[in-house]
Amino acid sequence: MSKIYVVEDDKSIRTELAELLKNAGYEAECLTDFSDSKRHIIESESDLILLDINLPSVNGETLLKEIRRETDTPVIMVTSRTSETDEVLSMSYGADDYITKPYNPTILLLRISAVLKRSSKENIKTSYRNLQVNTAKGSLSDGTDELVLTKNEMIIFQLLLDRQGQIVSRDDLMTTLWDNEEYINDNALTVNISRLRSKLSDFGCENAIETRKKQGYILI
User: Which residue of 21, 52, 121, 191 pairs with 26 in a disulfide if CB–CB is 3.0 to 4.6 A?
Assistant: First the structure.
């Protein structure tokens, strides 16, 4: 049974989340003492953390940065903020996903399931060219700098890496994304491929992904 640690200062929301998680088959534990939030979170040894941005004493995004210095435990930000800036900051600080209130309980549970699935199945390090690939964190590193990919970009990159040198069709990519509860359409796939290609190029991996018309993509 996976353990979810709820970091939410609103008691009613905290209680609601804990009940939802328990009914879904998870073990749920809630933070109630915010005087030393980081220590309590680290010591909880949870499988996933639901972290609110608006917290007493410390900003959730700042807390996330501190947590990431000590643990790679998956974190989903749960917040009432809808600014894209907040989402970008949360992901850049190491969040694995981001969901806004009022959340759809079914969607939240799907997000949790997807993040836990990636964490348990992909908590390994592989390599590509001169880079270390951490699929659990969704990052590539040259030992000095780190490139953090979005969850969709990481799913796409991982499939291309698993089949490096082989052509991967758009249908295969779409199927893999759907299997990971990441619902994107054909146009969104094109955008994600373009962004991934650009990020890899900026990180020193020029021409990493080739497009084979009417066939798909190949990582070289």
Answer: 21
Residue type for position 161: L
User: Residue 80: which H helix or E strand, with range?
Assistant: none
Distance CA 167, CA 189 (A): 16
Q: Which of 105, 121, 137 is the last residue of a domain?
A: 121
Confidence of residue 175 (pLDDT cuts 50, 70, 90): confident
Tokens representing 28? 């749920």
Take residue 40 and report the two structure tokens written for it: 């309590």
Report the distance separating Cα 28 and Cα 43, nearest Å. Answer: 15
Overall number of domains in the chain? 2
Same domain, 112 and 202: no
- Write down the mean pLDDT value for the chain: 85
* Domain span holding position 174: 125-219
Question: Whole-model pTM?
Answer: 0.55
Assess whether 113 and 130 both reside in one domain: no
Determine the Cα–Cα distance for residues 19 and 16; give it in Å rounded to an integer: 5
Burial class (CB in 10 A: 0-12, 13-18, 19+), 40: middle
Amino acid at 58: V
